[in-house]
């Protein structure tokens, strides 16, 4: 194919992928894994700690089904139809979730919600695995870091806007949490409909909006170009064993399992802790999310450039340093004094924006070009198992309140502290992974120092030039 045609396909792919990502992110904000509306909905259904553990575990267990994406596309020469159909089906199930309280009593309603959420997440995970291989066939490795970082910026902005508006809408039903909601949606706040007993009607609206936006994303995705893929001659069993025979990939699997195991400790309780222990409204949580998102937007391109210059492994080391600090900050939060968690939102946004891009790109960088899908599927499955196990254990084995160094820690805070220490320890298996084009941490620090020195020097020259012009003007 002529180079000009390749560039044209690449530009079109990037444009469509960014647009699809915006619609998908609105869906994820409303009803995807980690959505605060899922947590609020579960609280309304009477969720117990074990249910919060299952909610997080289900979102991660669904990643195990990524390997089915390999099985389904193995004998196909195109992935587009499979991706669009599977993800669309998963998002259609979202429409049903908000109506569960109207047809089933508690605790059956909680069980039905978990089952629907599992089915929806699993179907989308299968399609997402094929999408990663699809996009990596078009976007070259040398610019993937920048591609994913820029795309993620658009996603964060869309998620921020959708999340804030939907949170303000749901908070209108809570008299104790509607101050900011009334400012955001003043034309709705005076209606009698917005009373606590009508909160149950808010969630069908939120989930329907999310479902519609998710299906629009698939409509856009269906227009994205695709390179024909070769049919794998190996059986599914042989395909799955290929990455496991790769020593370097096994090291990446160990790191992924270790890190996800660490992240899973306490992961079911971040949002419930905000709502129940700190008394934060959904809009308060969105303010936290806004700070996190702004930090991510400001640093995503820097992460992308860092990945392209020093490699994913070295970039992940810097992400892990922040990743261990963030949970420890929550150990000091109380209902009366928790303003500093908003500062943690800033560092958390920096860390997770980098970790998210690295996680997507890392496996693509070390996998053989023709086997990226099965490598990505295997890593997603193992990572999902790791965080699923600790999420379930966190929900089932919540420790008692503990006093440490004069601090009265709630059970969730004990788990947050353990998670921070375990995240730091995951640097050990990370350093065993070998990546093409990688640079050491020392080299990376040298590059960052030179970059900062040039930027500071340019800023100094600009300020000095402005001052000189001002002085000449006065003369």
Describe the structure in your own words.
With 475 residues, the chain is mostly helical. It folds into two domains: 437 residues, MFS general substrate transporter like domains (Growth Hormone, Chain: A); 36 residues. The chain is 75% helix and 1% strand. It has 22 helices and two strands. The protein has a two-stranded antiparallel ribbon. The longest helix is centred in the C-terminal third of the chain and has 34 residues. The model has no long low-confidence stretch (mean pLDDT 83).
Quick overview:
This protein is mainly α.
Which oligomeric form is depicted? single chain
Report the sheet with the most strands, covering strand number, pairing sense and barrel closure: 2 strands, antiparallel
Separation of the first and last Cα atoms: 63 Å
User: Number of DSSP strands?
Assistant: 2
Radius of gyration from the alpha-carbon trace, in angstroms: 23 Å
- Say what the CATH topology of the largest domain is: Growth Hormone, Chain: A
Main CATH class of the largest domain: Mainly Alpha
> H/E series, N to C?
HHHHHHHHHHHHHHHHHHHEEHHH
Helix-and-strand structural type: mainly alpha
Task: Give the number of helices.
Answer: 22
Uncertain runs are: none
> Fraction of residues in helices?
over 70%
Number of separate domains = 2
Strand order of the largest sheet: 1-2
What percentage of the residues does DSSP assign to strands (E)? under 5%
* CATH architecture title of the largest domain: Up-down Bundle
Query: What would you give as the CATH superfamily of the largest domain?
Result: MFS general substrate transporter like domains
Q: Whole-number average pLDDT?
A: 83
Large-scale geometry: globular
